[in-house]
Design brief:
Number of helices: 5
Strand content: 15-25%
Oligomer: single chain
Largest sheet: 7 strands, mixed
Strand order of the largest sheet: 2-1-5-4-3-6-7
Number of strands: 7
C-alpha cells in the first residue's frame, strides 16, 4: 500500500512537470507569433503582418474547394471590415506565385493576398485545415475558425471579437 502511494506521487509529479514544460513551450510559440512576420505579396512586394490593431488572417490554397467558395464572401465583407479599420489578409499556403495569380484572375479581390511559400506563418499558427480564419488583436489570436465562412458569419464573428 505504501509503495502504491509513492508510485502515485511520482506519477503526479511527472504529469505536473510535463504540463509545466508544455505550457512554457506554448508561451514561447505564442511570443514568436507576435514578432514581425514578413511575407511576399502576389505582386512581389514584401509585406509585414502588423503587431498592432485588429485584423483577420485567412489561410487558403488553390486546390481547396471550400476556400474557393469562401472567396466571394470575403470579398463581400471587405468593405464593411475596412469601415471599422479591420484589415483582411488572405494568406496562400505553400504555392508558387504564378499558380496563385492564375487562380486569382477569376476573382477581383480588393484585399491583400500574401504568399506563405515556406509555410512559416502556417506553422507558427499551427494551421492544419484549410480554410482557417484567425481573428487577431494586437498580434494575438482571439478566435479561430476552421472551415468555410459565409459573409454573415465573418461579419458576426468580427463584431464579436474585434470591435
Amino acid at each position: 500500500m505504501k509503495k502504491w502511494i509513492q508510485l502515485s506521487l511520482v506519477a503526479v509529479l511527472i504529469v505536473a512537470l510535463s504540463y509545466a514544460i508544455i505550457s512554457n513551450t506554448s508561451k514561447q510559440k505564442a511570443a514568436a507569433k507576435t514578432e514581425e512576420i514578413v511575407l511576399q505579396s502576389t505582386s512581389g512586394k514584401q509585406f509585414a503582418i502588423p503587431e498592432k490593431g485588429s485584423y483577420i488572417l485567412n489561410f487558403w490554397a488553390t486546390y481547396c474547394p471550400p476556400c474557393e467558395r469562401e472567396m466571394p464572401a470575403l470579398k463581400a465583407a471587405y468593405e464593411t471590415l475596412q469601415s471599422h479599420n479591420i484589415e483582411l489578409y488572405a494568406v496562400n499556403v505553400e504555392e508558387p506565385t504564378r499558380l496563385v495569380n492564375q487562380y486569382l484572375a477569376k476573382f477581383d479581390l480588393p484585399f491583400p493576398i500574401l504568399l506563405d511559400r515556406q509555410g512559416q506563418l502556417k506553422e507558427n499558427y499551427e494551421i492544419l485545415t484549410l480554410p482557417t480564419t484567425l481573428f487577431l488583436q494586437d498580434g494575438k489570436v482571439v478566435h479561430t475558425v476552421k472551415g468555410e465562412l459565409t459573409e454573415q458569419e465573418l461579419l458576426t464573428l468580427t463584431q464579436k471579437f474585434l470591435y
